[in-house]
Design brief:
It is a single chain. The chain is of the alpha/beta class. It folds into 2 domains: 146 residues, Rossmann fold, CATH 3.40.50; 110 residues, Rossmann fold (3-Layer(aba) Sandwich). The protein has 12 helices and 10 strands. The strands form 2 sheets. Strands 4-3-1-2-9-10 form a 6-stranded parallel β-sheet, sandwiched between helices. The chain has a 4-stranded parallel β-sheet with strand order 6-5-7-8. Strand 3, helix 3 and strand 4 form a beta-alpha-beta unit. Helix 1 crosses helix 11, helix 2 packs across helix 3 and helix 4 crosses helix 11. It is globular. The protein starts with 5 loop residues before the first strand and ends with a strand. The model has no long low-confidence stretch (mean pLDDT 97). It binds D-glutamic acid.
């Protein structure tokens, strides 16, 4: 039993999709969530810059907060920094790419799969590499602008719908039966994305599968927390804590009491 917290980070609110799944799967775990809202979006920045931010946050989570595991709850960061973090940090590191791929492989029946993500994620080739060993016809599309809607707390409406119609065109043309939401912000836009693609396309997010992997690894390493007083979540934001609390609780669907400046 280990009651040290799990450290989790994203460029902003996207990682909350992973957090929400983790609370369901491992309710006794203490979690520190960092939203790097001052420096979002990561997806349109040079990958080296995203690497730098990610290393800085993950290192601080370990050295200052004593976390027992780091969860990179961001596809863009997972695409570029996972190997480095895994080899340099003394705690286990989990990203969202592999769990997402597993979930998509389970969901597809036609083997025509789409992946959408940030410009950074799609251009890094991380999903193209992750699917290469499987017999899948993969169609990737970057969706610049989606993250900004979520960060404003605007998850439905005409504007985001029109943008989705344009950006999802390659996915519609590829006639996929499964779409992997390769950005942790995108599950918040699931309604809009599904309205555009039609209900026959299954939307898959990495959140649930990542949460299961976290729980499995904690158990395997005897790092899971059984304490009755566990389950505390502390939120940190590099921008305005008040704004993070306001939009964060709207997206999460439950109150966030305290957000602390990162
Ligand atoms: N949520 C992030 C991801 O999964 C990044 C969004 C961004 O800041 O561009 O890629």
């Amino acid at each position: 039993m280990d009651n040290r917290p799990i450290g989790m980070f994203d460029s902003g609110f996207g990682g909350l999709t992973v957090l929400r799944a983790l609370i369901d799967v491992a309710p006794k775990e203490n979690i520190i969530y960092v939203g790097d809202t001052a420096r979002y979006p990561y997806g349109s920045k040079p990958l080296e810059e995203v690497r730098g931010y990610s290393i800085e946050i993950a290192t601080r989570l370990v050295s200052e907060f004593g976390v027992k595991m780091v969860v990179v709850a961001c596809n863009t960061a997972s695409s570029v920094v996972l190997d480095t973090l895994s080899s340099t940090l003394e705690v286990p590191v989990i990203g969202v790419i592999e769990p997402g791929v597993r979930a998509a492989l389970i969901a597809t029946s036609t083997d025509r799969v789409g992946v959408i993500g940030t410009v950074g994620t799609i251009s890094s080739g991380s999903y193209q590499r992750a699917f290469v060993d499987y017999n899948i016809k993969l169609t990737c599309a970057a969706c610049p602008g989606f993250v900004e809607f979520v960060e404003r707390g605007e998850t439905t409406g005409d504007e985001v719908h029109v943008l989705a119609e344009r950006l999802l065109q390659p996915i519609i043309e590829a006639d996929v039966d499964t779409l992997l939401l390769g950005c942790t912000h995108y599950p918040f836009l699931a309604r809009t994305i599904s309205d555009v693609l039609g209900r026959e396309v299954t939307l898959v997010s990495s959140a649930d599968e990542t949460a299961f992997q976290i729980a499995r690894e904690l158990e395997n390493l005897n790092l899971d927390n059984q304490a009755q007083d566990g389950g505390k979540v502390n939120f940190y934001s590099s921008a305005s804590p008040e704004y993070f609390a306001e939009i964060g609780q709207r997206l999460l669907g439950f109150p966030i009491d305290d957000v602390i400046a990162w």
